[in-house]
Amino acid sequence: MATTPVMQKLLSQTRIPIIGSPLFLVSGIDLVVAQCTAGIIGTFPSLNARPQEELPKWIEEIKSRLAAYKAEHPNEIVSPFGVNLIVHPSNPRWEGDLEICAQHQVPLYITSLHAPNKVVERVHPYGGIVLHDVTNAKHARKAIDAGVDGLILVSNGAGGHAGTINPIALINEIKSFYDGPIILSGCMSRGKDVLAAQALGCDFAYLGTRFIPTKESSAQAAYQQMIIDADSTDIIYSPFFTGVPGNYLKPSIVAAGIDPEVVREAKTGGSNGGAVNLNKDARPKTWKDIWGAGQGVGSIQKIQTVREVIDEMIEEYQATRKRLLG
Ligand SMILES: Cc1cc2nc3c(=O)[nH]c(=O)nc-3n(C[C@H](O)[C@H](O)[C@H](O)COP(=O)(O)O)c2cc1C
Fold first, then answer.
1. Are both 63 and 190 inside the same structural domain?
2. 209 and 246 share a domain?
3. 204 CA to middle of ligand 1, Å?
4. 3-state SS, residue 130
5. Domain span at residue 139?
6. Is 293 in the pocket of ligand 1 (CB under 6 A)?
7. How far is CA 103 from CA 56, 88, 116, in A?
8. Would you say the CB of residue 84 lies under 6 angstroms from ligand 1?
9. pTM score > 0.90 for this model?
10. Of the residues 19, 23, 234, 252, which should be mutated to test ligand 1's pocket, given the most ligand atoms within 8 Å of the CB?
11. What distance in Å separates the CA atoms of residue 228 and residue 205, rounded to the nearest whole number?
């Protein structure tokens, strides 16, 4: 049972409680449409639609492709989509992107970094839902004060800018003062992982890395294959590339000519070229050349379509549920 009517409605619009998380440079229109038509919520960072004039075109194309799919498959669940806004002064686009999304009545927002008071104010009047990314209790309290509809708990091992707290500890700590919707992020790849998140009291599981090696993702082939070949020991957590600690694939660091031990030991954001003495233009670019992924890589074995991934997850989810409940 979901914690609020808003979450109950969202749950009823999915085949399995999964949100496909926003992935910088990886989530494009095709991935989002594939996720929503497979019956999970699909999302993308607004910054993937570039320049900004592309954003309304992306939203309209996603809407029309989902409507066309629904018209052809009236009995199937087609899930809503969402847009991720990085709410931070270093992102000069975010307020303009918010306005574009609100004018197009985007159903769901995922906000990161600063508390999203302005997003809540702008989108709640038309029924937009706001979920905010947090890695600790302090940021959770700020987001709750801003009036968000739910918290995404980004635990240790997650792809991208992950937290450091164990998921069980993080869920229990935040649930001690918040009884609203919780979405768990970090290292889940399989149907039974989603059921485990629900058993811990979460409404949804939030999966990113699992969708990088899919036929509909925008990730290049070598990146997809690196995830298939990797295990958890290939993931390095470091602030080296962006100043904020994140999880990256070690083989991509090596391929860029950077000593992975320098990255692993870094305590602050270095200039990624500094370590290899390259000039600015020749430096490897984070996300484009240095590839992000979470510790869950070890359970991803092959490149599939999103539909195949979700069908397999649903099968395992139901079998596990049956095994546990009899
Ligand atoms: C390559 C990559 C890019 C990401 N880009 C973003 C982003 O633009 N905005 C954001 O809020 N989170 C971003 N994340 C974090 C994910 O949305 C999510 O929290 C994480 O992938 C979940 O953990 P998992 O990868 O272990 O499933 C990114 C993660 C990865 C791996």
1. yes
2. no
3. 16
4. strand
5. 5-218+303-325
6. yes
7. 9, 21, 18
8. yes
9. yes
10. 23
11. 21
Nearest Cα to Cα of residue 238 among 229, 251, 247:
247
Rounded to whole angstroms, how far apart are CA atoms 12 and 43?
18
In a domain, 225, yes or no: no
Q: What is the pLDDT of residues 255-312, one digit of tens each?
A: 999 999 999 999 888 654 444 444 556 668 889 999 999 999 999 999 999 999 999 9
Q: Is the CB of 22 under 6 A from ligand 1?
A: yes
Asked whether residue 48 falls in the same domain as residue 157, the answer is yes
Is residue 245 assigned to a domain? Answer: yes
292 lines ligand 1 (CB under 6 A): yes
Ligand 1 centroid – CA 208 distance (Å): 5
- Structure tokens that stand for 154 in this block: 């980004």
Nearest CA to ligand 1 atom 3: 23
* pLDDT tens profile 99-158: 999 999 999 999 999 999 999 999 999 999 999 999 999 999 999 999 999 999 999 999
In a domain, 18, yes or no: yes
The count of domains in the chain is 2
Place of tokens 């200039």: 271
Residue 268 lies in a domain: yes
> Which residue matches tokens 């995922």?
110
Query: Which positions ≥6 away from 322 have C-beta within 8 Å?
Result: none
